[in-house]
Every structure is written in structure tokens, then in C-alpha cells.
Amino acid sequence: MQQRIRHRVVFLAFLTSVLLYLDRFVLSYTERLIKLDLGLTEDQMSWGLSAFFWSYALFQVPSGLLTDRYGPRRMLTVYILLWSLGTALMGWMNGFAMLIAVRLGIGLAQAGAYPTCAAIVGRWVPLKSRGTASGLIAVGGRIGGGIAPLLTAVLVMSLAAKDNPDLDSSDIVAPIHLARQIQFRGHAFEPYPGLTDDQNARWKIASSLTESFRTPDWDLIDEASSNFVTVRGSYKTAMGMAPQDFGVAPKVGATSAGSLSLQLVTRLRDLLNRRLNGTPIATVEDLQALPVEREAVDLLATSTISNNARANRLILEAAFPGCIRPLYSAGWRPVMLVYGLAGILIAALYWIVVRDSPARHPRISREELAEIEAGRPPQMQVDASQARPPLPLQAMLRSTTLWLLSGSQFFGNIAWTFLVLQLPRYLQEAHHLSFADRSFYASVPLWCGWGGMFVGGIATDRCVKRFGLRLGRVIPLVGSRLLGTAAFLGLLLEPSLPIALALLSLVAIAADFASPATWAFNQDIGGRFIASTLGWGNMWGNIGSALSPLILASVLKQSGSWTGPFLVCAATYAIAGLCALFVDPRKSIDPGA
């Protein structure tokens, strides 16, 4: 039993890593719900996604210094508590300013997590097993990232209101755009032959929605759409709406060209609710081409009055995207509280089990302590009671190899961050997946990646034994970047969903295979300053992550397709591999090494 104290310590670092990614990326998978619920634009959401990484990046080195000074037990407990409270506060967000403030705070608190975990490995794990232990902790992050979309989707759908699917006035977020589309269908009696399959499906649903409308109902639609009259025979409208615009989400800034009185919105709401509480507005076959939630299909299979109303609400959301607040919007706020409470529990366990050094743990045996210290250079046999020398900042700034690894992390993270920030949007826009489906498929690459993480830890240890320290770290780093570059180039061909997921999974495997070598590299050159050294590299890596959503969103907007962002990711991954080719972990920044 006593021989396993270090295993418990590493396991708690693993759990911390799981929580780290779960809380970090919950925003990515609730982005659409939060955007509509808070009335945010695409640019504001991009900044919300980016905000975390700015504070996370800039506090990497200070947090490492705090850990080196005050010890990993105290500091990681504080870090977990602070970011868990921030995650819980996300459930009370009421606008863009609070989104930015809370995400900056979470990034600030999470910045110290991995540097502190690296310090734990450096103090508690024998030198021969560092790569494996680092790989296990890094796998925890990928497992957290993998379960984040799945668990978040399940919790959101479970915690969303089940009893009343009726629309409130505030649920009609783009009333004019919605009324114009309904009116367009009312004047153009036959579907336009140039419509896509999904637009034809929306046309059929609109036909079912309006089949019971009477003259007063159409008068209301005409009034709500601001007299948006169709020019018969040309399939054009007085304000430029063409058939290909039917069923398309309103553009940012165009959700309400003018404004409707509350009385008009209320009448529109009552009209829609009357129809939603009637017979189904679509069949299961009608929904094949639309990103409708699975729940709607299940409800149609067991048709009752209450089931019909909820199914119709979900179908209406899919048929007129961006016009109706999603029914699941009620579920994202309590999810944040659940994740926050889980973090408080892990912080308590960490404080109870972990000590700053093995020698200070009351239950460690002499045999285990001797095994931990075996093969460790004298300057790294750390006693928490010893005074810390000052950080060799000049040595860090003059270290070419540290700058090269930082560059590899910077460019690599620009590309890798696509998997956890932009992938849900890509699946929605390019493959037209529902919330539940895109949450499931977004997890696939991350689940595949964690295998690469664990194998990468073992591989770098074995490469060191066979090829020496330098090549043992360089081979996993460079090889993984080349594989990731090739996978992103494959995505330029606009593949089908299964092939796209396979290529994205290769990206995740390649990125995760390199992570243990990156961790071990920082432990190799860090000496007594592991947390600070790892924090330095993480800072540059996460500056890349902070820029990623802004760069890729801008490229997507300019190029009009996802080939632009994929080309950027391929190029940055190639540059990351070039930087990694010249690193040398034998050159320590510790003057005492």
C-alpha cells in the first residue's frame, strides 16, 4: 500500500487535467446556445473564445514562479478553486462584458495548472518514468476534452425545461426575418427548382406550418415582415430576397431591419404557438436533410399532443435557423454550476492527499522515497524546506533551444486549437449536424488523440534509450507535426463526414503524440525551475491558441469556405515541425545543472 503513494498523487494530477479541459472548452460546445441566449454576434463569440487564452498565456510564467515559491500543494488547490468558481459564474452571464471578464478570470486561474502538475511529476516521479507520467497527465486533458462535448450535450438536454415548449415573445429572436421567410413561402406557391435539399425540406415544413393560416394570419405576417412584398414570377422580393436565401440564418446586424412592437411580436408568438400545439409539421422523412435534434425524431415516433408541441418546436428551430431561441438554451446555465461544484470536490481531494515533496508525506515508505530519488541529479533532489534560487531569466532569454520549442508550441497551437474551438462550427456549417450530433462527432478526434498521448509518453522514453536524449525528444516532435500537416492538407479536398473525421483524428493523434516529449523536454532543461520553464513554453503556445479563433474566423469570412482555415492550419503545423527539428534538450537553463 505504501509503495503507491506517488501513484495516488499522479492520479489526482490526472483528474485535475480532466477537469481542466472540461471547464476550458465547455464554452465551445454551448457557443450556439449562449450566442442566441445573450444576443451576441459571431465576432463577439470569437473574442469570448479567445479571451481565455490571453490571460492563460500571459500568466504562465508568473504562475510557475508562484508554484516554485509556495509549493504545488498550496498553489494547485488555489488554482482549482478559483477556476471552478469562475466556471460556476458563467451560469450567471448576462452579456458580452461578463463573458469576457469571466473567461479572462478562468484563464488566469488555469494558467498554473500544467506548470504545477509538471512540478509534481518532477518531485514525485522517478527520472526513468517521467515521460510516461507526463503522458498520463496529458491524456487526462484529452479525456476531459473528449467527454466535454458528450457530457455537456447530455446535461444541457437533461437540464433544459421539459414541461413547456411554447414560445415566449423573447424566444423569437429575429421576428422580421422569420416573418419574411414565411411570407415568401406564402406568395411563391411552388418551390424554386434551384433550392438545395435542405432548403426544399424547409420549404415543405413552411408549407405545413402555414397550411391552416387564414386571411387575418397572413395579414399579420405581412405586417410583421414590414410589407415585404414578393414580386410574382421573378422569385425576387422588393428588398432583394432570392429563393436561395430561404431558410438561411439572418446575417449579423440583419436580424431586425427595423423593429417590431411588442404587440406584433406577441401576436406572431400566439399564431406560431397555435400551430405548434397542433399536428406535426413534418414527418421523419422530411427531417433527413435538416440538422434536427434527435429528440424531435423520437417524439414523432410516439405522437401525442404534448410530444407534438415539443417536436414541432425543435423542428421550427431547425427549419428557420437563427430566428428561434433553441429550446435547449435553458440547459447551459445549470451545466456551468455542475462543473464548478465538481472542481471544488477535486480541490479538496488534492489538498488532503498531496504534499510538496515525497519526504514530507506522512505515509511514504523509505523504499518508495529511495526509488523516487534514484538517478536524480543532486540539485534536483528537492526538499520543500530549502530556499529557492532566483529564476535564471537571462539564461531562459538566451536559450535558442527554448525559443525554438516555444515557436513550435506557438504555431502548433494555432492549428490544434481548431479541434476544440472551431470544430463544432465546422460540423454545423459544412455537414449540417444538430446540437446532439455535432457534440458526438466533435468528441471523436479527441478520443482518438488520447491514445497518441499515452503512446507518445512511452515512445519518447524508448527513443531516449535508443537514440539518446536529443533525438529521443526531436523524433516525436517533428514526426507528429509532419503527420498533422498532411492531415490538414487532406481536408482541403472537402471530404465527406467520415473521411473528415478520420483526418481530424489524425491531427489529434499527431498533436497528442508530441505532448509528452514537450513536457519531458521542459523537465530536461528546467532543472530546479521546471514549472517556470514549462510555463514559458505554454505561454507562447497559448498565445497561438488565443490568436487561433480570431485568425481562422477572419480567414473563413474572407475565403467563404473552410479550405482557407485548413490551409492556414497546415502551414502553421509545418512551421512548428521546422522549429522542433533544431531543439536540443541537453542544454539546461539551470546554472546549477
Automatic annotation (TrEMBL):
Membrane-crossing residue ranges in chain numbering: 44-66, 78-100, 106-125, 137-161, 336-354, 402-420, 440-459, 471-493, 499-521, 533-556, 562-583
UniProt KW keywords: Membrane, Transmembrane, Transmembrane helix
Record-linked PROSITE patterns: MFS (PS50850)
Location in the cell: Membrane
Designated name of the protein: Putative sulfoacetate transporter SauU
Keyword presence, Transport: no
Source lineage: Bacteria, Pseudomonadati, Planctomycetota, Planctomycetia, Planctomycetales
Gene behind the chain: sauU_2
InterPro entries: MFS (IPR011701), MFS_dom (IPR020846), MFS_Na/Anion_cotransporter (IPR050382), MFS_trans_sf (IPR036259)
Amino-acid biosynthesis is among the record's keywords: no
One GO MF term: transmembrane transporter activity
